[in-house]
Amino acid sequence: MSLILISDIHLQPGRPDLSAGLSRFLDNLDRDCQQLYLLGDLFEYWIGDDAPLPGAEQLAEQLHGLSDRGIQLFFQAGNRDFLVGQQWLKQAGTQLLPEAFKLRFPDGVMTLLMHGDQLCTDDTAYQAFRQQVRDPDWQQAFLHKSVDERIAIAEQLRTESKKQGAAKTDAIMDVSPATVQQVMEKAAVSRLIHGHTHRPAVHQLELTSGMAERMVLGDWGKKGWYIKADTTGTRLLSFAI
Question: What is the CATH number of the domain that holds 199?
């Protein structure tokens, strides 16, 4: 039995390489894979299940094929695709996870899964924005707008995000070590896996309960990143797209 975890593919129009790379990756999943976790930002943006991105329906069909094969599929919302809803998830045969999800990995380690944006608490401007757009009332108001209006708002938000990102320091845009420690100790885990920061690495850290690790998935570009977990261990891996 193995688990596969991916995040930050950022599927979008104009990047057929990402769609093709993900399709090949899914076609070639290890036969012993029993669970696949999509930890957010699968899509560059998502304005509602009634207006899926080009290729999203084909991806849903491919994912549902994996589900039909007996692989359990799980989706955790990212900062780009938090509006993915039950309609698309049902088409994809995929279950929605909460923002933080704890489970015991095949190697016996209690592990916490997150997208990771909620760990970047030093970026107070982003956290205020996150609180706004995750509010159910804001989401309902947004989803009741026309598709054209939603596209315009999404493009505006993406442009503003890029401008703000260019003006922020790397430290502010990374996770807060204090928040990581607090979250892990509250969840009583010795491993945290997340994406979002686009800084793939495995970090060792010390908690009050002992040594722990933080595994960071990378964003897909020239390389694809994934984590494979089985009884022999949990590894961060990459491949050429």
Answer: 3.60.21.10
